[in-house]
Amino acid sequence: MLLARLEAGPALSFEQVNLVKDISPIHNQKVPTPGVRRIFKTFADIASELEQLPHIKTDPTTGAALEEPITPELNSLRAILFWRDLRNCVVHRGGLMSHAFCEEHATFFEAMREPYQSYLRPLDPMTRLQLPNLVFYAMASVHHRAAIFLNTRLQETSKRRRGTIHLPEEGLEEPTTFDPAFRPLPLLVEEDHPESVRWAVDETYRAELAPAIAAAREAG
Fold first, then answer.
1. 197 and 189 in contact (C-beta within 8 Å)?
2. 33 Cβ neighbours under 8 A, 6+ residues apart
3. What is the radius of gyration, based on Cα positions, of the chain?
4. CA-to-CA distance for 108 and 74, rounded, in angstroms?
5. How many degrees, rounded to 5, is the angle at CA 70 between CA 68 and CA 76?
6. 166-188 pLDDT, tens per residue?
7. C-beta neighbour count of 2 within 10 angstroms
8. Which residues 6+ apart lie within 8 Å of 154 measured at CB?
9. Which residues are bridge partners to 54 per DSSP?
10. What is the tens place of the pLDDT at every residue in 14-29?
């Protein structure tokens, strides 16, 4: 999306330029790789749109398809942040939920578990979260829907030069199934952002810019 916005213009915002620096192995050798919250903050317009999407595909009470959140709290962005933080609890704390995690997500989780109160207990610090199959499928569905939304936004911003398997000028239909033998295009191809393409393929150009990059790194 950063490349797509750079190519589409106007110039990147101040926050987006800082994100570029912080994910660059050239410009940044100190700050940890930015996380999902930092990325959503940088692309506040996209985060706002995710808040308009529901946290699951179907209403657990009526079975009807959902096109908007049941309540303002039960939206796609809040669900993604919840599952992301829970993943960190599993990886770094053996699944035990911290007090901070429970405080951060109490409102969302209570709204989410309302239809499942008979077998999904409230958040409780220093315990593990129950994960019935139904809740797991809800987690998978929100990420699937969000991925489709984000890819669509990427295609719109880049005029379909990004977020697709084939370039628009190839005139080929996009595949509907995953082919593990398919080799995707490079991140940068001809007619993409000129300076970025040149950096990727021209060793002399990289050498010319090396002193300026070193000076910028020294300046912090």
1. yes
2. 22, 23
3. 21
4. 6
5. 60
6. 877 788 888 888 788 888 777 88
7. 17
8. 1, 4, 162, 163
9. 75
10. 899 888 888 877 766 6
